[in-house]
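in:
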C-alpha cells in the first residue's frame, strides 16, 4: 500500500531529506498509520447516533424564568465596553 517510492515522493514534495534508513523507517510507520486508520473508519459504523445519548431529558432542570443580572454589574470588570456589550479586539 505505502511503498518506498511514495514516501520518497512525499518527502521531495515536503522538501525533507531522508537517508535510505530513514525512508525505510518512515515507510513502515506510514503503513502502520494507514492500516490503523483503515480499522478505525469502520469502528461504530453500525451504531445508531441516538443510542449514544447518555443523558435522559427528564434529568434536566426545569427552565424557569428568573431575573437577569444587571448590565452594569456584568460589565464592571470589562476592559472595554461598547453599546452595553463586551468589546474585544478584532482578530483576522
Amino acid at each position: 500500500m505505502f511503498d518506498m517510492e511514495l514516501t520518497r515522493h512525499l518527502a521531495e514534495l515536503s522538501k525533507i531529506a531522508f537517508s535510505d534508513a530513514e525512508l525505510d523507517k518512515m515507510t513502515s510507520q506510514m503503513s502502520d498509520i494507514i492500516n490503523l486508520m483503515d480499522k478505525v473508519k469502520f469502528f461504530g459504523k453500525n451504531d445508531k447516533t441516538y443510542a449514544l445519548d447518555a443523558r435522559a431529558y427528564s434529568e434536566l432542570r426545569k427552565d424557569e424564568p428568573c431575573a437577569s443580572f444587571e448590565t452594569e454589574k456584568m460589565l464592571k470588570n470589562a476592559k472595554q465596553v461598547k453599546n452595553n456589550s463586551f468589546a474585544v479586539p478584532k482578530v483576522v
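note: The mean pLDDT is 85.
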